[in-house]
């Protein structure tokens, strides 16, 4: 079976972990500091703050920007649960807005229509590795004096408009879950140019400590370990080649499959964390591919407001609702051989013939 995802770990990652284990410093230490520096440099921002996972990164971003009870944050319902749960963890209310007709990211027109006196921030997701419509969202956030916070969990090193994911807004946050374009095993990171936000995140991720046993505020244990950071530093050095291969595969798919399904546009810095097609016969196609040894995924089968914890946040999002019945992700990870790619293409085209 050709898997939908395959984390790429090699001898370099094993050697990095071994080096940390031998050093005796395995919790947050010098590796985390170096990883933060290198990731900030890659994103083109002043500060990066590493955390235990993407959700804890998102939570700290909300808290450090004083988002809390009584505030509304505009976001998309067509995404992973954490996009909205981090807003709720801070005590604020997610306001769900529809996605673009020709893509998978927030529709700026609908965003502007949904702004109220309670709106504090716009929280776009760079879904599947494609940057959201950042120029329009920046314009809207400035016009209405709102924070722009980027959910960059799927967009490591996505670049357009002279900037990269995590560098456009007040802050961004990333996930390093094993299926992502780069991994630390589990992990997350916050990116920002605001030194106050960065410092506040650093304090809160370590029980509110500004120095050992000096707890200046309430905080959490959201730290990344040096073991994870060591993996991340090696993965970061490979990210460029990983993303290049993903784009190559996506371009091959687009050429071969565009007559049969709606293929994703290669635009807005897309790094193809997922290669996601749209197809009205999605369920039958998925069954056929799985029966023929091609792994697939449905991201996402439901909108966030369809889940019990968010059912009272229901909104009118017809484009997003349509996507839940049509999207299907095909393998696009860099471990695929040219023969694997050909096998996927042949399986899809054979289904339609």
Automatic annotation (TrEMBL):
Q: Which SUPFAM superfamilies match?
A: PLP-dependent transferases (SSF53383)
Q: Name one GO biological process term.
A: polysaccharide biosynthetic process
List the InterPro entries hit by this protein, alphabetically. Answer: DegT/StrS_aminotransferase, PyrdxlP-dep_Trfase, PyrdxlP-dep_Trfase_major, PyrdxlP-dep_Trfase_small
Q: Which molecular-function annotations from GO does this UniProt entry contain?
A: pyridoxal phosphate binding; transaminase activity
Q: Which Gene3D superfamilies does the record match to this protein? A: Aspartate Aminotransferase, domain 1 (3.90.1150.10), Type I PLP-dependent aspartate aminotransferase-like (Major domain) (3.40.640.10)
Q: Name one Pfam family in it.
A: DegT_DnrJ_EryC1
Q: What is this protein called?
A: Aminotransferase DegT
UniProt organism field: marine metagenome
């Amino acid at each position: 079976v050709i898997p939908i995802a395959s984390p790429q770990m090699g001898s370099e990652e094993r050697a990095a972990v071994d080096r940390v284990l031998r050093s005796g410093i395995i919790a947050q230490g010098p590796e985390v500091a170096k990883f933060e520096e290198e990731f900030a440099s890659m994103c083109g921002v002043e500060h990066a703050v590493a955390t235990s996972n993407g959700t804890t990164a998102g939570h700290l971003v909300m808290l450090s920007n004083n988002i809390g009870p009584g505030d509304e944050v505009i976001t998309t319902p067509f995404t992973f649960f954490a996009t909205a749960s981090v807003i709720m963890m801070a005590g604020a209310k997610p306001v769900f807005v529809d996605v673009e007709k020709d893509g998978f990211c927030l529709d700026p027109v609908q965003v502007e229509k949904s702004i109220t006196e309670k709106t504090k921030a716009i929280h776009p997701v760079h879904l599947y590795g494609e940057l959201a419509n950042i120029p329009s969202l920046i314009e809207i956030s400035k016009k209405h004096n709102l924070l722009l916070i980027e959910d960059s969990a799927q967009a490591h090193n996505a670049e357009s408009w002279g900037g990269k994911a995590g560098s456009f807004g007040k802050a961004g946050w990333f996930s390093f879950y094993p299926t992502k374009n780069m991994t630390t095993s589990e992990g997350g990171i916050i990116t920002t140019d605001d030194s106050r936000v960065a410092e506040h995140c650093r304090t809160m991720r370590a029980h509110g400590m500004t120095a050992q046993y000096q707890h200046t505020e309430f905080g959490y244990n959201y730290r990344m370990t040096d073991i994870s950071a060591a993996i991340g530093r090696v993965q970061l050095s490979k990210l460029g080649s990983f993303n290049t291969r993903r784009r190559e595969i996506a371009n091959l798919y687009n050429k071969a499959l565009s007559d049969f399904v709606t293929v994703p546009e290669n635009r807005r810095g897309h790094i193809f964390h997922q290669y996601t097609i749209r197809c009205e016969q999605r369920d039958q196609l998925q069954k056929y591919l799985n029966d023929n040894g091609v792994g697939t995924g449905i991201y996402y089968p439901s909108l966030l407001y369809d889940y019990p914890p968010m059912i009272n946040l229901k909104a009118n999002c017809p484009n997003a609702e349509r996507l839940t019945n049509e999207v299907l992700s095909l393998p696009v990870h860099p471990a695929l051989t040219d023969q694997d790619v050909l096998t996927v293409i042949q399986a899809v085209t054979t289904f339609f013939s």
